[in-house]
User: What shape does this take?
Amino acid sequence: MEEISRGCASVGVIMSAHNSLYLWPIDTFGSEELKEKYVAPYAQCLGDDGESLMVGCFGLSEPGNGSDAGAASTTATLSQDGTEWIINGTKAWITNAHESSAAVIFATTDKALKHKGISAFVVPFDSPGFSLGAKEDKLGIRASSTSNLIFDDVRIPRDHMIGEPGQGFKIAMQTLDGGRIGVAGQALGIASAAIDCAAKYALERQSFGKPIAQLQSIQNKISAMSVARDSARLLTWRAATIKDSKKKYTREAAMAKLAASEAATMCAHQAIQVLGGMGYVSDMPAERHYRDARITEIYEGTSEIQHLVIAGDILKEYKQS
Assistant: This one.
């Protein structure tokens, strides 16, 4: 993930959203029938013709709920004959929207239960009543499409629910834990690319009769960038290791995402400072790294939300001791 994002953060997030946000919840909570139809062909990413893309996306955010994932206004109601779910609502800021052919989405099936009344579903994009919004004109990660998913009396088979009724919020939160490790990897790649750009330029750029890499102020920046990147990398590896060991990793994933995203923004910012005017123009990649880095502090849980997750888990641990 880091190395792919080091080359292009857009490709990194396309891969991360597909693997960790779309495939993982179906593979973990879905029925064998759902896995056969919506995991097996999507795991290879190519259709039977060997050319068409088989990519999925994840629909949790809505125009009105932002970080309040439990306030889902999208609804799913059973048809009168009980054979289909009828979905109405809009999902916003969906990565891979225009490349996907199916989505994992979350909708309220029982309003009285609030977040415990949210359920998860797989929705194929060829369902009547489904449509896509316009592509968002974004600051960064511009090679990855982002838009709304619009559901207008979309009917899907009853067996397209993932897990049990009311399990959706739990599935969403566990999915985001893994997704945050992916975003951390993406952020590390952006940070590394920014360091590459700054260090190479500092060695080549001559000022006051010598490479600017020999100036202490430039060396301080390169050092700080590398320390921030490497520290975040260790946090990311720790979270991934704990996840692989099948242990709870919510706090560690939040720490990794928080540290890596802030490291990416800092490294990209300092890379522009090292390049000076050349960092502000599109002739050099520094400005793209800066634009790409900014989103890592926002999607899959803002930095503010990560602080809440981390502190909440720590305080819970102290209360139990």
Summary: The first helix runs from residue 2 to 7. The CA atoms of residues 202 and 213 lie 5 Å apart.
